[in-house]
Amino acid sequence: MAKTDVLKIASPGSKALTNAKREQYCRSRALAQSRIQAYRDAGWGSRSDNASYVNACRLERRPEIQDRIAYLTRQEEDLVVEKRRRIEEQLWAIHESDIGDCFETYEAAKVGKDGKLEIDGDGKMLTVRKQRPRLLSDLPPDLRKAIEHVQLDARGNVVPQLYSKLQANAELRKMLNIGAKEQAPDITKLSDAELIQQLAEQAKELGIEIDLNYSFHKREE
Predict the structure, then answer these.
(1) Which residues neighbour 127 within 8 Å (Cβ) at sequence distance 6 or greater?
(2) What is the enclosing helix (H) or strand (E) of 216?
């Protein structure tokens, strides 16, 4: 049975251009550089900005240049989206982290004021429940990422301190645009009729009457 060749169809512009200057030009344009600046970044020189612009426009009419710029631009956008996703995931991890998960409960021998171990009537050693920090290596990776710093206590235990939940909450609200105030309308963009209607509605709320001559009369009760 003959083997079937699998053809891999590359996306237009996915391969780097063999001409180094053209490749650099496309990368600069994908990073939102102007045509003139991208043309200079590529190493081409012209007597004037106008000449650089004309040459850059002529270059961008080439299909391979257009495809390469479009491809690189998509890659940059995908990277931004991925970085934003990772930042949001980390902020949520901090926001939902529980400091209690960094500690464990254990049974310790009960010691009296005289420094001796205490026992019950049957001679069985008494114990008390205590807490101690868990080893960092025993913590799950997501929880370790929520730790801002550690400090040693009097017994030499490594005590973790988590990032601020309040700060994480504020950053999440900002990122997700939660609670953002709506921008006040620009009255300069209103037509005369819209402006008069808006003034009339405000006057009604204030209990006054307004006419087209902008004279005000106290409404009779």
Answers:
(1) 107, 108, 109, 110
(2) strand 216-218
